[in-house]
Amino acid sequence: PKVQVSLPTFIPKPIKRKQLYSLYGQITPLSTSTKENVLSLNQPNTSARELLDKPEPVATIQTGYGELRSVSCLNEDKIWTSGLTNDIKCFNIKGVLLQTVKPTLGMFPSDIAIDSDGNLLYTLWEKGTVSIVKNGQTEMLVRLHGWTPSQLCVTSTGDILVTMFSVDYTQSKVVRYSGSTEKQSIQYDRDGKPLYSGNARIKYITENRNQNICVADLAAGAVVVVNHDGKLKWRYTGHPSVTKNKLFQPRGITTDSQRHILTLDFYNKYIHILDQDGQFLRFIDNCDLQDPFGLCVDNNDNLFVCEFTKGNVKKIKYLR
């Protein structure tokens, strides 16, 4: 007999794509996020704290300076201080002198700061340098040409922010350094106008917990705040209750765990406390401050204030 063989054939059906996709699962898109690498330069106190109705002085440290300009907190018990002499002194809270650092003979530091490892940093106008003291040894980090360093601070990520002015006294800017390497220069707003007054007047600087950069521009009579990228956030030009009589000319500036900004009003002898958005909260005006100049806050939100002519540092409790 004759055998017939019929080959199999494939009859396709319509493909239901959605059902097919569900069998394979899905791939989520690539996503990136940034996370702040915050060091314990000033250990953040995350609990909410309220301002005291009446701040109170709790200690006075006599430094022996005739003209005391800067104070920087090493910890709750020790502070570094500098004035218009060529020595930088470390005291404990009882006023005992613990250590002295002498910059180049005959030169006084423009400002001082402490990094997260407890190392001392300072700027010298005459030499145009930023230096660090590690284990008793001084190392120059930055030498400027055409610019003069003024005030400085250390950020939560370990960078150094330095205010500086041009040698012809016409420009000012903030420069960020990682060690000796320049990373960022902040000088103009989005319209190309200078953010800071162009002169050699004092411009103390600090970083807030939100990484905003806060500068007390004495000559401009303003606190100028930019974000981490150098974009202008706001300016504070004083409170009308005092500026109607005397100009607001801020000296020192610092921040605390609540992101408050504290700045010194030299002529009115007030400390202005602002929130992180530049809104005035209150004065500290009851602590009998004599010619207040520089200031800092320790890890427990205790405030330390320099008295310029008396050479004292007052420790003030202002938060509950």
TrEMBL record:
Could you tell me the superkingdom of the organism this chain comes from?
Eukaryota
Q: Give TM segment ranges.
A: none
Instruction: Please give the biological process terms from Gene Ontology that the record holds.
Output: proteasome-mediated ubiquitin-dependent protein catabolic process; protein polyubiquitination
What the entry lists under InterPro entries is as follows: 6-blade_b-propeller_TolB-like, TRIM-NHL_E3_ligases, WD40/YVTN_repeat-like_dom_sf
Show the SUPFAM superfamilies listed in the entry.
NHL repeat
**Gene Ontology MF annotations:** ubiquitin protein ligase activity; zinc ion binding
> Gene3D superfamilies, per this entry?
TolB, C-terminal domain, YVTN repeat-like/Quinoprotein amine dehydrogenase
Q: Which PANTHER family match?
A: E3 UBIQUITIN-PROTEIN LIGASE NHLRC1-RELATED (PTHR24104), PROTEIN LIN-41 (PTHR24104:SF25)
- What this protein is called in its record is Tripartite motif-containing protein 3
